[in-house]
Amino acid sequence: MTNTLISAGTVALMLATGAQAQGNGQRGASFIASWDMSQTGYVSLDDMQTHRGDMFDMFDHDGNGYLAADELAQMAETVTAQGELRLERQAENRAERQGEGRRGQGQNANPTGAIIHSAMSVEFNDTNGDGRISREEFLTATERLFAALDRNGDGRVDLSDF
Ligand SMILES: [Ca+2]
Ligand SMILES: [Ca+2]
């Protein structure tokens, strides 16, 4: 009986340790938690389209189906401030051992926060160069964003891509 209790406790401890390793600080973990809309344990292109589509609708304040540069900038600022990218950026900064604000690719294999942030710029999304972003442009650009994050090209963004 005592042995059973001890081993049950040991298992619980191991599970807790495992959960912690997945969560705080591990590259990619917070990104996957935020973007895995279908709760499959990895981020698919569909997940990313859903999430980016929601973001588009949220910042298309007048609902005309286009985002202007200032609305996109507001999106980037808000999403960063809300912490969705913050944890990922922190993990990256730790990895790079440098201060905030740098967007370079550096030696970082997959600087997710920086990539996602730059994917909210006009330049990244404005395929036809008219200075405003249609919902279609935004979702088409999402395919490029996904391809940039899916480093091993297996159609899923999971921890193995970081
Ligand atoms: Ca455009
Ligand atoms: Ca992958």
Automatic annotation (TrEMBL):
Q: Which domain of life is it from?
A: Bacteria
Query: What range(s) does the EF-hand domain occupy?
Result: 47-82, 137-162
Write out the entry's keywords from A to Z.
Signal
**Segments for region (Disordered):** 84-112
GO MF annotation, one: calcium ion binding
Composition bias of kind Basic and acidic residues appears in 85-103
**CDD domains, per database record:** EFh (cd00051)
Q: Which stretch is the leader sequence?
A: 1-21
Pfam families of this UniProt entry?
A: EF-hand_5, EF-hand_7
Its name, as the record gives it, is EF hand domain-containing protein
Q: Which organism is it from?
A: Roseinatronobacter monicus
Query: According to the entry, what is the taxonomic lineage of the organism?
Result: Bacteria, Pseudomonadati, Pseudomonadota, Alphaproteobacteria, Rhodobacterales
